[in-house]
Structures are given as structure tokens and as C-alpha cells.
Amino acid sequence: MSLQRFISEAISPWMKEIGDESEIVLSSRIRLARNLKQFKFPLLASTEESHAIVQHVAQALKEEPIDEVKELELLMMDDLKRNEKRVLVEKHLISPNLAEQSKYGAVLLNQDESVSIMLNEEDHLRIQCLFPGFQLLEGLETASKVDDWIESHLTYAFDEKHGYLTSCPTNVGTGLRASVMMHLPALAMTQQLNRILPAINQLGLVVRGIYGEGSEALGNLFQISNQLTLGKSEKDIVEDLRGVVLQLIHQEKSAREYLLDQSILQLEDRVYRSYGILANSRIIESKEATQRLSDVRLGIDLGLIKGISGNILNELMILTQPGFLQQFAGDVLTADQRDERRATLIRERLMLEKEQSDE
């Protein structure tokens, strides 16, 4: 494995698989926050201590890897260029916080990029397991196995009363963040999201954009996750989230049926217009590209557009981000240059899909 492989492919190997309800739920993630008993938490640790934490964890996890992990590659943030870190953020392999913080940060990645262990982010370890589609229970099972494996080699900071101890009080307890990435274009088109999203927040869940806290919800993509980690078991947290996601899936499907039944002409016009713009534009900004890609993905899912893989949304949503565009260019690009390259990349990708479907 190498850094180049992690940053050269937009689609991680796990993303190429098909999961349950994948037309609406693009991915499921389980993240566990953990700290080591014998070290100061990252916010208080010195650079030397942070370095010692990385070496301690990396050395311990070389022994007896489990099937869910197999081989792990260690990437040090200080060894990466700014844009290389940006690409890893765009692939959701590391957080913006890890990419930006200056202390001795690192990430351990497995071969198919489904397991990511961030070191010295807000906590000593942020264990992340990613699955395609709606697979929260499978994600929890895998994350628990990885967590148990790590705990067999390292000693966590744990309190019998409060549970796992973390830098942020909102993570104390289970340290669990379960989330799904959902594509909800029909609910947006039928203007139901303004009613639904506030209701979700009242249930103890939080709705964010594609890159988590502080990010904008582009392309009708929403990350929905639990907010509370204390006072509930891991399974209860995941089951609560699953119940809400199942309701959202039902409502999105109903909204799609409504559009097909009541507004088919307007729907077709929107989908084909977006496809035409993507297939022919010479300049396109990121925000417009994500919205047009959302329309095209909806058209694919509803059978209005033939011969194009639904994975094209996942792929192009990442490929057209600033980090990837500049990685392929091998240089820093201005905003105008990125808009031009984004349009070219999308045109060529759609043309390739068409050629393959005609064969």
C-alpha cells in the first residue's frame, strides 16, 4: 500500500459494493472515540507526548491483526502536503480537524479504506468503520470487533460510572457516533425538509452536511447522526438512529412516487436539463455541479436515465472537489481553473459511461 493509492482513487474499494437501500442511503459509519489511560489527552499533550502516543499505538497494533483490519498503513500528517490531506478529507478518511491541527497527528488505514483510525485528533483514537448503503448494525458489529482488538493491546481511559472518557463531554459514555449519509432530493423538491429536519433534531439526532459539523448540505446529501452518547448502550443508540432513517427512507420513496405521478414532466425536464448541462458545460462551480449531479442520480434511480451507474454521483462528488482536482493537475489551481477542470472532468466521465453502455 502507499499514500499514492489512497489519494489517487476517488472511490474507496468499500464504496464500490452495494448495500441495503443504496438508492437513498449512500453509506453508514460507526465512529468510536477512545483515549489511552497512561497519556495526557491530545488537547493537553506536548508534541513529544503526541509523538510517543503515535509510536505506542502503531507498534501495538502491528501484532496479530484481525480479519476486519488485516494490514494497516500509517500516514503521518506532518509528512503529507496540504493538498494530500485535503484529498483524504474529501474521501472521509480523516476529519478536517485532523488535517488542520498542528500537533503530531496520524491515521491508520486498512487496505479497502473501510477502517480508519485517527490518532491525536480530539481524542487519542477515533476508530471509524464505513459500509456502503444502510448497514448500521453491520458497522457496529465490525467497530466492536476492531475496538475489542485494540483494547486487547492498549489500556483505555475508562470509568465504571461514566464509561469511556473523552476530551469532549458530549462523547463521554459509549464514545459512539453512528451516522448515515442520505440522498434526499425528492423531499427537497417537494419542500418537506423544512418540516422534517427540525423534527429530527428534537429526537436527539443531528443533521449536518456532507463533511460533518459546520459543513453545508450540498447536492441534497445529509449526514444524520446521534447526539447523545451517555446513558444508552451502543445498540440502543444505533437502533434509535435506524428507526429514524427507516422513516426517512419511507418518506423519500413516497416523495419520489409523488413526483413521478403528479409532476413527471417537470421532473424529467429538471433531470435532463441537469444532465445536459453536465454533459456540455465548459465551466461549472462546485455548488452547481453537486446539485446537477444530485438531479442526475435521482434520474438514474428512477429509471429516467439509462446506461449510467448510480455510483457516478459518489465518484464525481469526490473527484470534483478542490483537493482531487488539484491532485490530478499536479499544481495549485485558481477558482476559475478548478471550475474549468471540473467541467472537463464531468464531461469526459459522462462520455466514458455512454461509450461503455453503447458497447
Structure report:
There is one protein chain. The protein has about 350 residues and is of the alpha+beta class. The protein has two domains: about 1-10 and about 30-175, Creatine Kinase, Chain A, domain 2 (2-Layer Sandwich), CATH 3.30.590.10; about 265-359. It is about 45% helix and about 15% strand. The protein is built from 13 helices and ten strands. The strands form two sheets. Strands 2-3-4-5-1-8-10-9 form an eight-stranded antiparallel sheet, covered by helices on one side. The protein has a two-stranded antiparallel ribbon with strand order 6-7. A hairpin with a 4-residue loop joins strand 3 (about 105-110) and strand 4. Helix 3 crosses helix 12, helix 9 (about 265-280) packs across helix 10 (about 285-300) and helix 10 (about 285-300) runs antiparallel to helix 11 (about 310-320). The protein starts with a helix and ends with a helix.
Please tally the β strands and state the result: 10
**Describe the biggest sheet?**
8 strands, antiparallel
Major sheet strand order = 2-3-4-5-1-8-10-9
Q: What's the mean pLDDT score?
A: 89
Categorize the overall geometry. Answer: globular
Number of helices: 13
Return residue spans where pLDDT drops below 50 for at least 5 consecutive residues: none
Structural classification: alpha+beta
Sketch the topology as an H/E string, one letter per element: HEHEHHEEEHEEEHHEEHHHHHH
Q: State the CATH class of the largest domain.
A: Alpha Beta
CATH architecture of the largest domain: 2-Layer Sandwich
**How helical, in percent, are the residues?**
40-55%
Beta-strand percentage?
A: 15-25%
- Number of domain units: 2
CATH superfamily of the largest domain: Glutamine synthetase/guanido kinase, catalytic domain
Radius of gyration: 21 Å
